[in-house]
From TrEMBL, chain A:
Residues 151-162 have a biased composition (Basic and acidic residues). It comes from the Bacteria. This is Uncharacterized protein. Residues 139-162 are annotated as: Disordered.
From TrEMBL, chain B:
It comes from Ruegeria profundi. One of its GO terms (molecular function) is oxidoreductase activity, acting on CH-OH group of donors. InterPro entries: FAD/NAD-bd_sf, GMC_OxRdtase_N, GMC_OxRtase_C, P2Ox-like. Coiled coil: none annotated. Residues 234-257 are annotated as: Disordered. The keyword Metal-binding does not apply. Its cofactor is FAD. This is Uncharacterized protein.
Amino acid sequence: MTTHDDTIAYDAFLTVSAALTGYNAAELQATGCAAEYWHHVQQVLPEDILKKFLSPAPRLGKKDDDKIIRESYLPDRCLGPVARSLIQLWYTGQWVPLPQEWRENYGASRFDVVKIISTRAYKEGLVWDAIGAHPQGAKQQGFGAWSLEPPKQRGQADDRNS
Amino acid sequence: MTAIPDDERCYDVVIVGAGFAGGILAKELVSEGHSVLILEAGEDHGKTWETYRSYLDQYYLSLAKTPNSPYPNLPTLPSPSVLDITAVRGTEPDTNGYFVQRGPLPFGSNYLMAYGGTSLHWLGTSLRMMPADFEMQSRFGLGVDWPFKYDDLKKDYERAEWEIGVSADAVEQTPKALGIKTSGPKDSNDYFAKDYDYPMHSIPSSYVDEFFARADGMAIEVGEDASDTVHLKVSRTPQGRNSTPRSPKNGQGIPVGDEVRKQFQPRGATGPFAYMGQRCEGNSSCIPICPIQAKYNAMKTLEDANHIGKSLMETITQAIASKVELDENGRVSGITYKKYPFPGVPQYELRRARGKHYVLAGGAVENVTLALASGICKSSDELGRNLMDHPYMMTWGAAPEPVGPFRGPGSTSSYANFRDGGFRDKTAAFRLEIGNWGWNFAAGSPNSDVARLVEQENLYGSALRDKLYHDVQRQVRLGTLVEQLPRSTNRITIDPAYRTPMGEYRPVISYDLDDYSRAGLAAAYEACVRIFQRLGIKNHTAYSPSDAGYFTYEGKGYTFFGAGHLVGTHRIGTHKSNSVTNDQMRSWDHDNLWLVGAGSMPTIATSNPTLTLSAMVYRAARAITAAVREGGAK
């Protein structure tokens, strides 16, 4: 792969990740984990499957995202399990191994094991932001912050501010 | 056979175990000018900030963030793990983990073998016992009375609260203020000495606590007597974590024990970066690790002991006490230990530590296995018996609105109302702890929620994000801590068939819940259900016969876990026929041997045992000091 191809594929990875997670590409980049997740996914997936996984990227980010995800990704025997593992990777920093049946059909990788990718990956799991908290053991909110009213849900906070 | 080499130096006191008890004892003894050696089986986690940081990283990377997960679990020095707990079936013991479980129920508690001991992963709850807890036999005809009363321990409670650095307000903590209908009419009088107060102000209540406080005043019947009905009240829990030091009301200071103390100076982290970490910053990971050490751990007291003691204080880590040796008069002549240079490698050098007095401070289980292996403390036949814990049952549900979980210390408040009362003749007392971390302990949240929503509810994108907020923000959890009575059949033994790779005996445990505790758990579950009904919480609690800790009571099934509160195995008492030590924790059988820690407690009651065991250490320290001086005069 040339550097140029790599960059296109990486952008596609971010685009697909954004559609699957509900966080935009800039937010995903801001975790500082995008490169290592990209590296991990490349290690786990055979090249042709990775290519297939990223191929809808040019059509994403417009108005048909739900249709594309619901039709091309989630029910697909090959791409569905990959999408579900990738969503969980972004949300928890932990790789969920692909099902046994998937490995038999599409190829096993020795990197396809349950693992928290890195200490940063744990701390940057999107779940902590989604639930209105902070990663346990990191990004502490300060003395007494636990007494305060919890943050509003994202969309609702936006409505209130606008 | 070659002779075991003696250590060159003979100390005034040799202590086995560098945890809560060993730390306070060492500090007290060196302050009196005695020389002290601590033998610690585990590794030193606190020597450098980098070491401690590495344990934090291990926590981040652990798939199951259990209490022991940040710390090394050496194959040669195994600590019990909650992951090892399975149901005990048939007649074969369960040998999955370090404990050999004979059942009928699994003993679900753990502890940590390391410098600092289990204080590294404790929650920080620092409750005093109730006056009734010392008089269970006299008041209810159950269990045993302690050889002393609440009043006799009061000053030592003060000392322990100031050593640990407990955050609470005395005015909120009397039995009356907690909403407890005490079994004795005067139990709330003078619960705290005049002008006494905790060193730091109370830790602020969580938003979750405030939600539960909406049920305050609700009447809950417990037991058969209408006069036992209690009125719910959420009360803040005294905690061993830094908040804001209290300014003494007058210039005189605050009376603590027999002295007057100036304003408390909170201690941060140990090691070269000691300035880091003052007040609790809400890392929400107290169990298993406080990243900034705002939560007390025994390394702080051990650091004081090193500082005060200088050349009087010596600690040898990676030294497993293996046998307590006696001379012809039944006095302890030495403790042989296995000093291992490489953690995890079963190679060691056998050495002997010598002192005038010897103290076992390795916790309620390790003290017993060492004593049993050494064939000591036999005359009462109580050694290893009366093992108690707080069977811990969780009740969880979904609140009707966001309550802000996963922020702050694991628990900041509880319903303390059920800690004593007339009902206690038939039903065990209990405390309902309010959890601040959603269904973390109960169901592995929030990771389990992500898995469920992605794998089963087929959500993705912003709908997933929003549903996570919706579900997790509503998660509430109550934890029941119920008392157990001392039972001779709940016991620790040893068996030559079960040893560690270092050749030490593994604890063999027989354990069960009696109907008294089961009745308490059932009453607690009923109270939780009523609280849920009152607050509109949808009950999601699920107990399954496949759970390791599943049990039944009056036809209904429940599940309990261990609380990590290991108590009672070498209890104090009034006579060598009914106890392992006297009320100063001195062995009845061996004049210069002492056993300290939660194993000394004759009953467990409803308070997490750390504060009480710490207070009792002051009592032992005075007696040991006197004994060392007496010995010197001879």
